[in-house]
Amino acid sequence: MATDLTIHHAGRMTQATVTGNDAGLKRFRNMLLLKDFVIAAERENGVELRRRAYLTQDDWPMRVSIRREGCQINVRYFLYIPWGWISGFVLLTLLVLPFSGIPNPVLAFGLASAVAVLAIYKQKFDCRPNARFWQQRPRQRWGEIIERLLAEAF
Fold first, then answer.
1. How many angstroms separate the Cα of 54 from the Cα of each of 43, 58, 132, 148?
2. What is the pLDDT of residue 3?
């Protein structure tokens, strides 16, 4: 069976479509489990996996969603900033900033607010090979890894 792999980067999420069977799907799922993913939800026609962050290794949290429709398998994956990190940053800003002794706390609060809004707005990141700026290396690395795993599994 020839592999028909199509990858589309949508800015916030990468979607891969491949033609395959149950054996290939199981092989791909097991390959992801070997890469430290854990199963978040498993249904009859799909599975959702997540991977925690390893920030000391420049690795951000990631989610992979696999759906099967007949012989076509849709894989959606993205790196993201967890809501816990965003709310922790906002809480820390509100609690620590007033007592930090910064000469211009209004400016610091404005900058912290801008960072929080940007993190909420750009919470998910696709895994394109020409990624730039925020999370550049992890996005490129995971795009290559997932593409290689899909090619090997199917």
1. 28, 6, 20, 21
2. 62
